[in-house]
Amino acid sequence: MIPGEPNSLSLEDLAKPVIKKDNELLIKTIEVGIDGTDLDIIKGVHGEPPPDSKKIILGHEALGKVLDSGASVKKFVKGALVVPTVRRPCNIASCIPCRKNESDMCITGRYLERGIKGLNGFLSEYFVEEEDYLVEIPSSIADVAVLMEPLSICIKTFTIIDKIQKRLSWEAEKTLILGAGPLGILFTLLMKSKGYETVVLSRSSEQSSKAELIRLIGARYYSTISTSSADIKNSEGGFDIIIEATGVYEMVLKSFEYLKKNGIIALTGIYNTSHQIQLNFGKVLLDLVLDNKVVFGAVNSNISHFREAVSETLKNYSRWKGILHKITADKIKLVDFPELVSKKSNFIKKIITFK
Question: Which domains, and CATH codes, for the chain?
Fold first, then answer.
């Protein structure tokens, strides 16, 4: 794929990567998930190749098996199942977050990301990765482990929400998730498991498979096709927590409409900077101030969030597995990916399998 050139996706034969450092491992890829970031890169609106190439290998959601390791590797044995993290630190001395293994909060902007920014990704038969950027996966959850990367973003977002909520002496009760894509569904699972009354608003119809999945989780579902903002306000009142997971400006505006006093909005979408909207920004600011509201953005995650995603999945697997299996049901071979990437699917997420 050539970032910046729409539809330049291609399949190529590459040499098998080799271990060059003592702390590296050779990984056999098992599955790679495709998300909106990958599709944006394919459309030419995002992405940055490694410095020595015009092309980038896509894929930042992966599950693999350890085939070999360097001399200093201690954490993983041959045959271990692993999920790699995405972001790599900027290695600039003044960047405290990167020095503290929190590169998701990098202050220089000079971080790198596998399959996205400056580093090749995992959409190949094999890849090499350093020990410190891998998380071991118990075999009992291997069938859904490709979802650990998006789930880690949900974990990070919830961690921030929880810290903000602690500024108040009472608990939040009601959450609105905007979007019913893979991330929105994972947010719904997580918020329900944390005990929140959860509502989902999305453009998919009330009869869609996504709506059915949301209801199976135990949340209420509204479609923007058939339900007006006034209808939702009349039915639900307001929300203590709103998580925007679409990257659509109009949904962000709706979040301000639905938020209760003292509420929290988490923005997790990637927004088109060329999009123009009309907004009474003064009123938005005034409401934020007078009603003690908080708005924050969250993107990427660090290795602690990946580990917590694994722990949450282990804890909830018996309840979550049916939903997670539906998310990962659309499995295709790598050879079919270029042809199918532009086609609409009735499934929720494309998973490329190397089995």
Answer: 24-148+302-353 (3.90.180.10), 172-297 (3.40.50.720)
